[in-house]
């Protein structure tokens, strides 16, 4: 079946703009994760959903970052009033609960000018 | 809390030579261990994982890793690399099924 898809693949935003990044998990995957990968760094955890419930948002760097998954499938990561330090690749992953392997999407590369 | 240290940021190697990418972790609880590979402009792909049992784990593309609890290491090895193995490699841990903690990555560059 299809893997995890993310859109857009690339996004350029002016500082202060709001952006929305979309993730479509693998069908039937209950768990969904968001990670932020800065240039030359490893991915860092942002937040985790099980179905529509956001169980862990400890990695969100500020209150400008907000994630939702209202119907337990597609998820959106929203960044308000973007700053240059938000420039990164945003990765989405999904899996079945208690399954150790996470399946990653191709990421959205965000550049804030 | 858990942390991961990848000891080499870049590893250049000639084609058909052996390679080892080093990974050390820190955790006060038992962890699961993973190696992921990232090709340019792509997402992360699982190479192999250690959950329990045999400490030598075999993965895709001829890679293997050995879990060493006393040294808290999980080094990745391949006896003979190909040009196509050129990529970024990430070691990761999780304390339970859930969020992954990644290392900084090792850039493997295979030269002809």
Structure in words:
The complex is a heterodimer of chains A (113) and B (112). Chain A has 113 residues and is mainly beta. Chain A has one domain (5-112): Immunoglobulin-like. In chain A, 0% of the residues lie in helices and 49% in strands. In chain A, strands 2, 4, 5, 6, 9, 10 and 11 form a 7-stranded mixed sheet that branches. A 4-stranded antiparallel sheet of chain A has the order 1-3-8-7, with no helix packed on it. Chain B has 112 residues and is mainly beta. Helices cover 0% and strands 54% of the residues of chain B. Chain B has no helices and 12 strands. In chain B, strands 2, 5, 6, 10, 11 and 12 form a 6-stranded mixed sheet that branches. At the A-B interface, β5, β9 and β10 of A face β5, β6, β10 and β11 of B.
- Portion in beta strands of chain A: over 45%
CATH superfamily of chain B: Immunoglobulins
The CATH architecture classification of chain B is Sandwich
Report the C-alpha radius of gyration of chain A, rounded: 13 Å
Q: Biggest sheet of chain A, open or closed, and with what strands and sense?
A: 7 strands, mixed
So what's the overall shape of chain A?
globular
State the share of residues found in helices of chain B, binned by percent.
Answer: under 10%
What's the CATH topology label of chain B? Immunoglobulin-like
Oligomer: heterodimer
Shape of chain B: globular
- Computed CA radius of gyration of chain B, to the nearest angstrom: 13 Å
Using the coordinates shown, work out and report the CATH topology of chain A: Immunoglobulin-like
Give the CATH class of chain A.
Mainly Beta
The number of helices of chain B is 0
Low-pLDDT ranges of chain B = none
- Topology order of chain A in helix (H) and strand (E) letters: EEEEEEEEEEE
Q: N-to-C terminal Cα separation of chain A, in Å?
A: 37 Å
Q: In CATH terms, what is the architecture of chain A? A: Sandwich
Compressed to H and E, one letter per element, the order of chain B equals EEEEEEEEEEEE
Query: What is the average of the pLDDT values of chain B?
Result: 93
The whole-number mean of residue pLDDT values of chain A reads 94
């Amino acid at each position: 079946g299809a893997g995890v898809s993310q859109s857009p693949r690339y996004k350029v935003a002016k500082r202060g703009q709001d952006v929305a990044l979309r993730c479509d998990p693998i069908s039937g995957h209950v768990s969904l994760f968001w990670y932020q990968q800065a240039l030359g760094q490893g991915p860092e955890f942002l937040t985790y959903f099980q179905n529509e419930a956001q169980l862990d948002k400890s990695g969100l760097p500020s209150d400008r970052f907000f994630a939702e998954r209202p119907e337990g499938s597609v998820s959106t990561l929203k960044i308000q009033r973007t700053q240059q330090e938000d420039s990164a690749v945003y990765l989405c992953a999904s899996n079945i609960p208690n399954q150790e392997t996470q399946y990653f999407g191709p990421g959205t590369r965000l550049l804030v000018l | 809390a858990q942390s991961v240290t990848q000891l080499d940021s870049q590893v250049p190697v000639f084609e058909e030579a052996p390679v080892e990418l080093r990974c050390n972790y820190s955790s006060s609880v038992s962890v699961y261990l993973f190696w992921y590979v990232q090709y340019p402009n792509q997402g992360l792909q699982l190479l192999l994982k250690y959950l329990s049992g045999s400490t030598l784990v075999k993965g895709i593309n001829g890679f293997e890793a050995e879990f060493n609890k006393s040294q808290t290491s999980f080094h990745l090895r391949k006896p003979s690399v190909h040009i196509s193995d050129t990529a970024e490699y990430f070691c990761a841990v999780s304390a339970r099924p859930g969020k992954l903690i990644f290392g900084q990555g090792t850039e493997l560059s295979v030269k002809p």
